[in-house]
Design a protein that fits this description.
By secondary structure, the protein is of the alpha+beta class. The protein has one domain: RRM (RNA recognition motif) domain (Alpha-Beta Plaits, 2-Layer Sandwich), CATH 3.30.70. It is about 35% helix and about 30% strand. It has 3 helices and 5 strands. A 5-stranded antiparallel β-sheet has the order 2-3-1-4-5. It is globular. The relative contact order is 0.29.
Length: about 80
C-alpha cells in the first residue's frame, strides 16, 4: 500500500531534501499551501525502502497520515 502524507513544512524543497537519502526523487512531493506539503510514496518504493525509513526521514516534522487520519511526529 502506498503512503499519502501531509507534512507541516515550509517548502516542498525541504521535504524533498529530507526524503532524498532514502527515496531519491521517486517520491511525489508537492506544495499544498504555505505551511503544508503533500507526499505520495508509491507502493513499489515503499516496499523496497521500508515505511520505517521514510517515517524516520520525516521524524523531526509533524506528519499527517491520510489513511490513519492522525498527526504524528514532532510538535
Amino acid at each position: 500500500m502506498s503512503l499519502q502524507l501531509i507534512v507541516l513544512s515550509g517548502s516542498a524543497a525541504d521535504v524533498e531534501s529530507m526524503l532524498a537519502p532514502s527515496c531519491g526523487d521517486a517520491a511525489e512531493v508537492f506544495t499544498i499551501d504555505t505551511e503544508n506539503v503533500g507526499v505520495s510514496i508509491p507502493t513499489l518504493l515503499l516496499d523496497s525502502v521500508g515505511e520505517e525509513k521514510i517515517r524516520a526521514a520525516l521524524g523531526h516534522t509533524r506528519v499527517y497520515d491520510l489513511y490513519a487520519g492522525v498527526w504524528n511526529g514532532a510538535s
